[in-house]
Amino acid sequence: MPTFVYMTRCDGCGHCVDICPSDIMHIDPTYRRAYNIEPNMCWECYSCVKACPHNAIDVRGYADFAPLGHSVRVIRDEEKGVIAWRIKSRNGETDLNLLAPITTKPWGKHIPQLSSVPAPTQDQRDSQLLYNEPKYIRLDDGDIHTLESNGLHMEKGVYY
Amino acid sequence: MAYKTIVEDNIDILVAGAGLGGTGAAFEARYWGKDKKIVIAEKANIDRSGAVAQGLYAINCYMGTRFGENNPEDHVRYARIDLMGMVREDLLFDMARHVDSAVHQFEEWGMPIMRNPKTGSYLREGRWQIMIHGESYKPLVAEAAKKSADKVYNRICVTHLLMDDAKENRVAGAVGFNVRTGDYHVFKSKTVVVGAGGASNIFKPRSVGEGAGRVWYAPWSSGSAYGLMIGAGAKMTQMENRIVLARFKDGYGPVGAYFLHLKTYTQNCDGEEYESKWFPALEKMVGKAYLDTEASHVSHRPIPTCLRNHAFINEVASGKGPIHMVTMEAFQDPHLEEIGWHNFLGMTVGQAVLWAATDVNPKYENPELTTSEPYVMGSHATGCGAWCSGPEDISPDEYFWGYNRMTTVEGLFGAGDAVGGTPHAFSSGSFTEGRLAAKAACKYIDDGKAQGIRVSQEQIDRRKEDIYKPMEHYKIYRNEIVAGSVNPNYINPRQGLDRLQKLMDEYAGGVTVQYMTNEKLLHIGLKKMKTLEEDLEKVAAENVHELLRAWELKHRHLASEAVIHHTLFREETRWPGYYYRGDHMKVDDDNWHVLTVSRRDPASGEYTMEKAPLYHLVGDIEDKALAEMKANETS
């Protein structure tokens, strides 16, 4: 379902151009508005649809297998931390409104700045541990698993 | 060319490609390298790039040791069984013992992970999968990477790795171009973590026209992980191990949650279960060690994905298609119905669009399934990628050369699709591999291994010339013709991609030949691949966007060539249902219970192939239920 852009809604702001993972949303030099330059490299990932501040981008199912007359629309709200979908089928019998959370916390506030956490000790550097380990592996006092701790060894060839 | 040259110097850790693997690397590198210069070069925008750009509805690799669910070795055995024995168990064990700490941090950062209301533990979709509302998975991990990195360069297509001119086989950074400005970017770095992606679109897809973009793996996954590393002379492993997916027809929507959580199942056109009737013959092909239906039934030992594909493919070939997913039962429950739709919206919106377009209501109709064209990647149920060192406390000598996740090129590390032999890492495992690679890269630098790197101006100038050649070529020959795309002196990137897909499909086991190939076909394929390589020297790019497509094509070509060499080398059919060697239709453990390892000489383009031993984890209990069953048999 390649994306397309409604002429009257797009103001050429370029948010879609900035976000498209496939580099296929470009600004048309004549109309100064965005359009999909390469529909057969579109994954219908909806990144541009979600990023468009004017809801100017929509999707029409791939011409080789999707009949016309359907609609899957979305509004993603970072402030509220939710995404809302509406699915309408071609025959109108399916009309679903679906809501899902996209985060449980305010954006980025709970991701640590690793440059300001205490530096690792030489022991930690020499160990197999990563940042926040072993604590975060089990969230208790348990240590990291090793071959020894789990009663394992490695053997060459087919044994099973 | 009027494009500027922009040099970023003195980088310690360059992350080339920032999907889940790359973001994990950038994030973790800051902890072990407080004063190190960490730079990300990403082809798109890291907020929505890589395979997880549109989100995920499940994290498919989570042990749950915290809830007493699984130990790392359990996951290793599962991956081994699924891949018919061909995995790097040291790397898998290492990933599995760390992966939970990544997931627990995701939750702390704000990832909505569903909980089982009765037990309080994460809601399981299957033994290894937990369910999430992961629409914003990628923006979340991107935020973590941005907090750690000194600089993020979005929209840089990395085309080549830079090599040290002072010491052979040592990496020195990377080069590429900005897909918007066209500028030439040089990154001089002590280490590089390749987080770039596996390959979609190297085999001819089932879809035609517009639908060519509706591939299972993202169309922007251009095999650059392999293109970059093969180009630098790194050894690769298991490149023959392409994957075929049984998915909802045309939309390739995910089936995992449907099978595991919604308890839907498949049947043929007559409404019959069809898998079991193909298993006796299949057991003769692969041997009882790999398919033991009785043991699977008793112990819930999983039947390898490829073997279930085999039953699907044969059922359809016998005239009993289409294969349907029976959704009509589960979807009567409104809660499960909602989950079914959310599952698509969270990670494959296109499938929801398709069902809306075709009036499929799974409550009243069982949707069709299909088997996809093959994909080459290393983080789902397959393990293509670079031959990397494992961790020192696990790996045997053949698997260890100093630094975890370092390839055979010094200072060059991998994560996610880039690392070979580590299937079933998925998103969380790829992120974890990035973290492991970053820690090892810091150690490599601290150990003084990156001293005295020299990059000559000659190398920088040569690569610049290489990069813009498709645009130069276009300028020179464009005006020989009036208009249009037919030119005797060049092909455009789309034409080249079409040719690659057609030849991979027909000679290397694509959908139109029922995934079948043999020695003769592969030799023809290699020959055609060589001429394509010559023609790729004449690929023409009209603008910078086409230049991006040209380089993606060159990376796909390098990956594909490796696929053919590996497929030719392994003289057996190890994964029926992924592909068949018609001249060797059985699993041959006597000769091929090994990993395949290749190296392409960057100077000559010649391949050398070798076998590497397989080491398996051996413990007291192989698989609890299986062990019990065996004990009962003997008593």
Automatic annotation (TrEMBL), chain A:
Organism expressing this protein natively: Candidatus Thiodiazotropha taylori
Name of protein: Adenylyl-sulfate reductase subunit beta
EC main group: oxidoreductase
Segments traversing the membrane: none
Gene giving rise to this polypeptide: aprB
Gene Ontology molecular function terms on file: 4 iron, 4 sulfur cluster binding; adenylyl-sulfate reductase activity; metal ion binding
Keyword entries, A-Z: 4Fe-4S, Iron, Iron-sulfur, Metal-binding, Oxidoreductase
Documented EC number(s): 1.8.99.2
Record InterPro entries: 4Fe4S_Fe-S-bd, 4Fe4S_Fe_S_CS, AprB, AprB_C, APS_reduc_Bsu_C_sf, Fe-S_Ferredoxin
